Amino acid sequence: MATPNKVSAVEETIADFKESNAAVLTEYRGLSVAQLKELRRSLGADTKYSVVKNTLTGIAAKEAGVDAFDDQLAGPTAIAFIRGDAVAAAKSLTEFAKSNEKLVVKTGYFEGKAMTSAEVAALAALESREHQLARVAGVLKAPAGAAARIIEALRAKREEEGGAEAPAAQVEEAPAADAAEEA
């Protein structure tokens, strides 16, 4: 018989799965409360890192349509529910795992697809969304800058050519003006 606490825990976990675009399952055995707090802080505001009960999480994952964690729910388990930039969160998790060997990244899912721990590490190796957008902006800006430099060079060349032609045009007009005054 399900207790109200277990039912609410399952409902909360289902909501977390549905609201997140990615999740990473970890084993935190041996980490202190201070280390877990540091990990949560490093993940940022868009990521919820929760220590979960395996049986209840399995039920919630099935209800939410997530099958990535079926065989991995054993031992002390925590999940990072990522609502923002998955690359930044995966990067934070893998960097923390490198400095704290007790944190083990087991598996994950990203946009509805299951990921192995190696794929989570590959996701972490990507550049952040902001960096990728800045790179695209630079690529898009380059042709506009080149066009502006070409237009400026053409304008300067016409000014030089126009400046050299102006005295010649004035010389031609001067005799005509003198002839008109004489007549």
From TrEMBL:
The keyword Endoplasmic reticulum does not apply. Gene3D superfamilies: 3.30.70.1730. The keyword Ribonucleoprotein applies. Keywords: Ribonucleoprotein, Ribosomal protein, RNA-binding, rRNA-binding. It comes from the Bacteria. Coiled coil: none annotated. Part of the ribosomal stalk of the 50S ribosomal subunit. The N-terminus interacts with L11 and the large rRNA to form the base of the stalk. The C-terminus forms an elongated spine to which L12 dimers bind in a sequential fashion forming a multimeric L10(L12)X complex. Belongs to the universal ribosomal protein uL10 family. PANTHER family: 39S RIBOSOMAL PROTEIN L10, MITOCHONDRIAL. Forms part of the ribosomal stalk, playing a central role in the interaction of the ribosome with GTP-bound translation factors. This is Large ribosomal subunit protein uL10.
